[in-house]
Amino acid sequence: MAQPFYSIIIPAKNEAKRLPITLIDVDRHLSKQDKKYEIIVALSPSEDNLHEILQRFERLIPNLKVIYLDTDLRKGGATLEAIKKATGEYLIFMEADNAVSITELSKAVPYIGPSASKKAKYHEVSELVIGSRYHSGSHHNPPEPISKKIFGRLFRLITRLCIVNRTDPNPKFFIIAKEVLSKITPRLKTTGWLLPLEIIANAKKMKIAPVEFPVFYSNDKTRRSEKSILKLKLEWWKIFFSKFFNREQTQKGARRQ
C-alpha cells in the first residue's frame, strides 16, 4: 500500500456526540482530494459509548485507525501515541469536536512543503503550517466571551514574549512534516493541552520558520473543558525552562566537538 501523504491526528475522550460528525467530515473532504490519507484517533477511556461507536466507524471508513488506550494519558499523551502510528509525509493535528474544520486545509496547501522547494520562489513555504485563530482574517463564531478573550490575550502576549512569537502559539489545527516531527518528539516533555506549543517551540530551535494562515473557528459553548489551570501553568513553565536547558546542552555539545 502506498504511503499516505496526510495523517490526520485526533485525540479523543467523551466525544460520542461530536467525533462521529468530525470523522465523516474529514473522510468526505479528503476522499475528494488527490492525496492519499489516513485518519488516526487516539481514544482515551471515556464515560460515554465512544468506544463502541468507533468500532463501527472502523468498518465504515477504511482509512480510519483507532488506538484504544487502556489509561488516560491526557490530550498530549494520547496525541503522542497517535504520532507513533502515523505513516503520512505530513501530519495534520485537529480537534475531535471539529473546532477548525478539515475544509480549512485548502488554505494551507499552497504553503506546505520544504522551505527549499520550487514553491518557495513565489511565496512562503514551510514544513510547519499553522491555522491561526487570531491571524488577520480569522473568524470566531460565535465571538469569544469577554473573560475567555482577556485570558487568551494575556496568555498569548506572555507566550509570544517568552517562548515563541506566533499569533496562535497553541493552535487547534496545524500541519507539520513527519521528518521534522520525528526529530522533535524525543525532546517533548509535556503530555497535556500545551503539546502544540512545545512542538512549535522546538521547531523554532531547529530554525524552521512556520507559516500562519487565518481559519474559521467554531466556538461551541457546549464544549467540555477538562483543563486544569495548575497543570497548564506547570506545562508552560516546563516548556519555558526547556528552552534554556536545551540551549545549554547544545552549547556544551559544541564545546566538546
From TrEMBL:
GO biological process terms on file: protein N-linked glycosylation
Domain Glycosyltransferase 2-like: 7-112
Gene3D superfamilies, A to Z: Spore Coat Polysaccharide Biosynthesis Protein SpsA, Chain A
A Pfam cross-reference name: Glycos_transf_2
SUPFAM superfamilies membership: Nucleotide-diphospho-sugar transferases
InterPro entries for the chain: Glyco_trans_2-like, Nucleotide-diphossugar_trans
Protein name as annotated: Glycosyltransferase 2-like domain-containing protein
